[in-house]
Design brief:
By secondary structure, the protein is an alpha/beta fold. The protein contains three helices and seven strands, in the order βββαββαββα. The strands form three sheets. Strands 1-4-6 form a three-stranded parallel sheet, with helices on one face. It has a two-stranded antiparallel sheet with strand order 2-3. Strands 5-7 form a two-stranded parallel ribbon. It starts with 6 loop residues before the first strand and ends with a helix.
């Protein structure tokens, strides 16, 4: 054995939040427990959920609402993972692409 542990990315599709100028959350929390149970039975030991945040200063994104929605989803995902016995990898996915400054990136990453 070489020590490699299998994991899974259980999110489904990106969903654009209405009224949030293109900012998104991931779909799939409603059926997550059932899917994670299957993945665990197949040998997975960890899971990683995407939480994409794009910095768009011109449109005021990500808004506090978008950040809170994504972080709430990450917390729910982590609880469900732990409940079925998988290790959750919790990492907001802040895009480095764009014309924002380093200071703006730091501000979003530390909210």
């Amino acid at each position: 054995e070489i020590g490699v542990m299998p994991g899974v990315k259980p999110h489904l599709k990106v969903y654009a939040l209405p009224g949030q100028r293109g900012s998104t959350v991931m779909q799939g929390l409603d059926s997550l427990a059932a899917r994670l149970t299957e993945y665990k039975q197949a040998g997975a030991v960890f899971a990683k959920w995407r939480s994409p945040l794009v910095i768009d200063e011109a449109n005021g994104q990500p808004s506090d609402f978008v950040i809170e929605a994504n972080m709430t989803d990450l917390a729910r995902y982590a609880l469900i993972c732990q409940d079925v016995g998988l290790v959750p990898i919790v990492e907001p996915d802040v895009s480095m692409a764009g014309t924002h400054t380093l200071e703006a990136a730091v501000a979003i990453n530390t909210k």
